[in-house]
């Protein structure tokens, strides 16, 4: 039985840690927030009283933290305390620079490391059906894979350290842009007197087909399970979409890539979040576009 320390028991981390417990791993979790530690105990995840206790004798340390700065700071502390050979897996969504820094810190302590951000949201975390996009050496990936399989359905090795974050950032840039594209099409269709269902029936089986339309349709009706039918409760909150679009723009600037639609999507989501909608599902951007105040 492998011993796993799990740092960051928030919306995503707690259900992920609970799935590791269910799969038979000896988990010790820790979160800075009292409420998260209490919720973890309630969910049957053993909780340590501090991070030092959580990582003691852990063969694997998983982090699921808000941002790159948190990951780099936690890794900076960890690598002074853990034995060589410990496997570090960071599942947070972070900027490229922090992801590479985390790998560097792990290597400085002769530890192996994988960046393994996820797709699938809190629903996927609870159901154990997340997709993990992984960056790191082949041996580190092989060691991480069985652990990740206890929390996800699809585990993809994207290449060298940092490539998991690169895949996540690129995927979510497609998502942000495509949600705006689909929303604009519905708004234009409304003005032209086209019903939502008619546009859906055509586009879902035509060249406009995409996940933002067929799985996550931003208008109520055509896809009954989409957040549009639940007053745009997240789902995937607009604030998180903005975070990921900003990461894509930072990465594009750093790499010298031209991403004009990514930049436009980031600006639109910034307006949306600034208008107080950060906690709503990201598909609610259709309402801002309909209002014409984009
Ligand atoms: P969250 O804010 O709910 O959880 C993060 C937790 O980390 C918090 O509970 C916080 O107290 C804890 N934390 C911060 N610093 C810590 C430290 N030093 N030690 C221990 N705990 C610490 O965030 P979340 O929604 O669970 O997201 C986590 C990561 O996953 C983010 O990077 C996010 O972008 C990414 N993500 C989220 C979703 C989603 O739908 N929520 C989907 C995909 C990816």
TrEMBL record:
| Organism domain of life | Bacteria
Alphabetic keyword roster: Branched-chain amino acid catabolism, NAD, Oxidoreductase
Q: Which reaction does it catalyse?
A: 3-hydroxy-2-methylpropanoate + NAD(+) = 2-methyl-3-oxopropanoate + NADH + H(+)
Task: Please give one Gene Ontology molecular function term for this protein.
Answer: 3-hydroxyisobutyrate dehydrogenase activity
**The protein's name:** 3-hydroxyisobutyrate dehydrogenase
Q: What are the leading ranks of the lineage?
A: Bacteria, Pseudomonadati, Pseudomonadota, Alphaproteobacteria, Hyphomicrobiales
Task: Tell me where in this chain the 6-phosphogluconate dehydrogenase NADP-binding domain is found.
Answer: 3-159
- EC annotation? 1.1.1.31
Q: Which SUPFAM superfamilies match?
A: 6-phosphogluconate dehydrogenase C-terminal domain-like, NAD(P)-binding Rossmann-fold domains
* This protein's record includes keyword Acetylation: no
**Family in the record:** Belongs to the HIBADH-related family.
Task: Tell me the pathway.
Answer: Amino-acid degradation; L-valine degradation
Domain 3-hydroxyisobutyrate dehydrogenase-like NAD-binding, by residue range, is 162-289
Determine if rRNA processing is one of this entry's keywords.
no
């Amino acid at each position: 039985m492998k011993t796993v320390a799990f740092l960051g028991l928030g919306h995503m981390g707690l259900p992920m840690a609970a799935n590791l417990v269910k799969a038979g791993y000896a988990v010790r979790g820790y979160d800075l927030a009292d409420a998260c530690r209490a919720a973890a105990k309630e969910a049957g995840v053993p909780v340590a009283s501090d991070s030092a206790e959580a990582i003691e004798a852990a063969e694997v340390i998983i982090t699921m933290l808000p941002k790159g700065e948190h990951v780099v700071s936690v890794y900076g502390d960890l690598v002074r305390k853990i034995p060589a050979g410990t496997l570090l897996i960071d599942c947070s969504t972070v900027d490229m620079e922090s992801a590479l820094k985390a790998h560097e810190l792990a290597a400085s302590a002769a530890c192996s490391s994988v960046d393994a951000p996820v797709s699938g949201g809190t629903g996927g975390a609870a159901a154990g059906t997340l997709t993990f996009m992984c960056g790191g050496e082949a041996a580190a990936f092989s060691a991480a894979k069985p652990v990740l399989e206890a929390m996800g359905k699809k585990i993809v090795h994207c290449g060298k350290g940092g490539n998991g974050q690169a895949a996540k950032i690129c995927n979510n840039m497609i998502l942000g842009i495509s949600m705006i594209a689909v929303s604009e099409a519905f708004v234009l269709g409304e003005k032209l007197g086209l019903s939502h269902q008619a546009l859906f029936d055509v586009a879902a089986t035509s060249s406009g087909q995409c996940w933002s339309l067929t799985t996550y349709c931003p208008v109520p009706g055509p896809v009954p399970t989409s957040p549009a039918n639940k007053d745009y409760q997240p789902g995937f909150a607009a604030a998180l979409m903005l975070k990921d679009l900003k990461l894509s723009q930072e990465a594009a600037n750093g790499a010298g890539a031209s991403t004009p639609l990514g930049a436009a999507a980031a600006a639109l989501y910034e307006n949306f979040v600034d208008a107080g909608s950060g906690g709503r599902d990201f598909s609610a951007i259709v309402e801002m576009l309909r209002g014409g105040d984009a």
